[in-house]
Design brief:
573 residues, mainly alpha
Length: 573
């Protein structure tokens, strides 16, 4: 009987303990949910409730301290620390004491407490890191640097490179920050984009710091450091010097550099970079691929004769004769396709261009590539108003990946023939089938501009689009005829865009003298004017004037980029 009674008493005691634990757990979960939702006041109340019931709960004490420190509630943090310091471990209490003093701006007292704390751990560099981080959070960056450097003295010379560099960046001590970033970089085996961007920021803030980089790489000329130096030279627009450095680096550095400059349309740099790659690469196929990029750049610069010479030289390369399968390679087909594009850009007869496309197709054994060439053939037939031939080609296209292009060309056929109802129906079908395709925007735009035109205006508009797709400036005249009919300023803006795209800047400037009445058209016209300015001082003046009048325009970010010089130095249309 006594034994049974003892068991019952034990079970009852365990039940009470479990109930307490369960209640504490529920309250803790509730408080943590408030923290996750950033409901700090509600979380504070729950943690206080836990402490009221469980006065020695360290988790609640720590969570409350973190809330007070995060919200800069110094009095509350100081009061909580005074009340519970007796139950805290000594190191924890001292750590919070330092943070509270720094939050209250009591720097001298915080330093005394920090020194007392570090005397407890004289050889632990992580404690120096911890103390430095406290000063850093409260923007005492000079003190943080001091503690990092003291910690470094107990370890290796490269300890805390990043921490010191980042703190020095906040103080704008460019020389110290740069030295620490460079010291860190010399130990790297892979490029660290964050550090590269930090060093770039330093050089932008103080271009004279490029000298420190030059001196440093004189001692430590690792590929990472050399590439960082070249990257900074690009930032300072010293492209020629950067290119010479990339020539001394492994090919993958030069390759990435060349493609990036091409992407940013720095063709004057990308062109010699690709030429160097083509001359130095021993692999025939890769060498040819680089030469193709050279031709693409010439094409982008409207240097069509140079592009054609480069491509014809490639066609005569001995590589293609080494195996019958080589001329079936997609790159060989693309070379011949590019020759057709060049012929089109030079104003050759459409039929001749189509013959070049058919010749390219004869070398392709890939179904999708063949149908892509058929689609281009059909597009040219549409532009030449041979609608029956275009429809015949389009009827042969049936591969899913190219169907969006095929259906766009069906719409274009109706549009160029001024079949408004058919074009409108095809537009709606296209938007249902391919709502996210890029051509969907083109179709909506064409339909939107054509809908308010009379029959004569529709003919002029469709004629203009056909000519412009052939890169013929006469298309601009047709757009202006349509504009004169109904004064839709979107038509005039489209004409200006094409004038810029066809390298007729003076004509674009003349057209931009028009007094736009639609507010959005006015803003876009201002952005186009910005694209045509060659002088940086005038760019900034125009940008400031625009932002003063239209600070909340959708184009405002582009104008702000000009002023800050964060974006590219020239707008690209």
């Amino acid at each position: 009987m006594k034994r049974l009674l003892f068991v019952l008493i034990v079970l009852f005691a365990l039940q009470l303990l479990w109930a307490q634990y369960d209640e504490k757990q529920i309250l803790s979960q509730k408080a943590n949910q408030h923290l996750v939702q950033r409901q700090y006041s509600e979380a504070e109340l729950v943690f206080k409730e836990i402490l009221h019931k469980y006065p020695n709960d360290m988790n609640s004490i720590i969570q409350l301290m973190q809330i007070y420190l995060s919200l800069n509630q110094g009095e509350k943090a100081e009061g909580l620390l005074a009340e519970y310091q007796r139950i805290m471990p000594q190191n924890t209490a001292m750590e919070y004491q330092i943070q509270v003093l720094l939050m209250q701006g009591k720097l001298s007292e915080a330093e005394s407490q920090s020194e007392a704390y570090l005397r407890l751990y004289p050889s632990d560099i992580n404690k120096y890191r911890l103390i430095a981080s406290y000063y850093e959070r409260r923007n005492f960056y000079d003190k943080a640097i001091s503690y990092y450097q003291r910690g470094r003295a107990l370890s290796t010379p490269n300890t805390f490179n990043l921490e010191i560099a980042n703190a020095a960046m906040q103080l704008q001590r460019w020389d110290l920050a740069l030295l620490e970033y460079l010291e860190y970089s010399k130990t790297l085996t892979n490029i660290n984009q964050y550090i590269k961007n930090q060093i770039k920021g330093i050089v932008l803030a103080d271009s004279l710091q490029i000298g420190q980089i030059e001196s440093f790489i004189g001692q430590y000329s690792t590929p990472i450091l050399l590439e960082t130096y070249a990257f900074c030279l690009i930032t300072l627009k010293d492209y020629h010097k950067a290119l010479e450095i990339y020539k001394s680096l492994p090919e993958n550095y030069m390759r990435d550099f060349a493609y990036e400059q091409q992407r940013q349309k720095h063709f004057e740099v990308a062109l010699p970079a690709f030429k160097h790659l083509a001359l130095t690469n021993a692999q025939p196929f890769q060498r040819i691929a680089y030469h193709v990029e050279v031709a693409k750049i010439h094409y982008s610069l409207a240097e069509y004769d140079s592009a054609a010479v480069a491509l014809n030289t490639l066609l005569a390369d001995s590589y293609w004769k080494q195996s019958p399968s080589n001329i079936r390679n997609p790159i060989y087909v693309s070379i011949r396709k590019m020759l057709a594009e060049i012929a089109m850009a030079k104003g050759d007869d459409i039929q001749h261009v189509q013959e070049l496309l058919e010749e390219a197709k004869s070398y392709s054994n890939q179904s999708q590539m063949r149908q892509e060439l058929d689609l281009e053939h059909a597009r040219l037939s549409l532009l030449g108003k041979d609608f029956r031939a275009a429809e015949s080609k389009l009827a042969t296209v049936n591969l899913q990946p190219v169907m969006p292009v095929r259906d766009y060309l069906y719409y274009l056929s109706a549009f160029l023939q001024c079949q408004a109802e058919v074009a409108d129906s095809l537009m709606h079908e296209y938007l249902i089938r391919y709502p996210e395709n890029d051509f969907a925007n083109d179709i909506i735009y064409l339909n939107m501009l054509a809908i308010n035109l009379d029959e004569a205006g529709k003919r002029s508009f469709s004629e203009g689009i056909a000519l412009l797709q052939q890169l013929k400036p006469a298309g601009i005249d047709s757009l202006l005829v349509a504009f004169e009919g109904n004064k839709d300023e979107e038509l005039l803006l489209l004409a200006i865009e094409w004038a810029i795209g066809l390298n007729q800047p003076e004509r674009a400037r003349t057209l931009l003298e028009y007094e736009f009445t639609d507010p959005l058209s006015q803003e876009y016209a201002a952005w186009l004017r910005l694209a045509l300015i060659g002088d940086s001082t005038q760019e900034v003046q125009l940008a400031k004037s625009f932002l003063k009048q239209k600070p909340n325009s959708i184009f405002s970010p582009s104008f702000r980029q000009v002023i800050s010089r964060v974006a590219a130095s020239r707008l690209s249309l």
